[in-house]
């Protein structure tokens, strides 16, 4: 029953993330990228530089936002592993598949516009493995998330 509770809420929040991101955030990002591409096509140096800097900022912010999902999956797994009778490999494999599956669904809906348009999705997917292997790095990147989930790292 513990495993079903774990999986149900992981899938539920993953579905919320993917639908919400695809429906509400992605159209705004696509519109911004259209504007930035128009600025790049002007041929002038200053608008092209502004467009590149804006793309870098958008990529970084998208990576941070999507990385929250990876951090949530790892923290949720760590919380459930404190329960008696749980097995680590089953929970981590499930979290990995659910996390990557929903991030992949989001990435599939995004229009390819070069390396910066896919970098944030690839990094968010890689953050799951990084956070699972080094949870203390998770605490340094998202210091507000563990307390929000009532989780404290051992010292």
- DSSP E strands, number: 0
Question: Mean of residue pLDDT?
Answer: 91
Cα gyration radius (Å)? 18 Å
Strand content: under 5%
The major pleated sheet works out as:
none
Note poorly predicted spans: none
Task: Sum up the overall morphology in one term.
Answer: elongated
The helix tally amounts to: 6
Residues in helix, %: over 70%
Q: Order of helices and strands, N to C?
A: HHHHHH
How many separate domains make up the residues?
1
The chain-level structural class is: mainly alpha
> Span between N and C termini?
30 Å
What are the SSEs and their pairings?
Elements: H1 2-40, H2 45-80, H3 88-109, H4 115-133, H5 135-141, H6 145-148
Give me some keywords for this one.
mainly alpha, 6 helices, 82% helix, 155 residues, elongated
Describe the structure.
This protein is 82% helix and 0% strand. The protein starts with a helix and ends in a 7-residue tail after the last helix. It has helices at 2-40, 45-80, 88-109, 115-133, 135-141, 145-148. It has one domain (2-148). With 155 residues, the protein is mainly alpha-helical. It is built from six helices and no strands. It is elongated, with a radius of gyration of 18 Å.
């Amino acid at each position: 029953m513990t495993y079903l509770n774990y999986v149900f809420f992981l899938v539920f929040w993953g579905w919320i993330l993917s639908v919400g991101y695809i429906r509400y955030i992605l159209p705004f990002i696509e519109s911004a990228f259209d504007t930035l591409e128009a600025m790049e096509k002007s041929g002038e140096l200053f608008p092209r530089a502004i467009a590149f800097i804006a793309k870098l900022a958008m990529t970084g912010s998208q990576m941070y936002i999507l990385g929250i999902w990876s951090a949530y999956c790892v923290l949720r797994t760590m919380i459930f592993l404190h329960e008696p009778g749980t097995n680590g490999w089953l929970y981590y494999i499930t979290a990995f598949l659910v996390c990557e599956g929903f991030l992949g669904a989001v990435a599939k809906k995004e229009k390819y516009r070069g390396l910066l348009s896919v970098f944030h999705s690839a990094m968010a997917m890689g953050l799951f493995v990084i956070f699972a292997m080094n949870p203390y790095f998770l605490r340094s990147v998202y210091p507000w998330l563990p307390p929000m989930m009532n989780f404290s790292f051992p010292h």
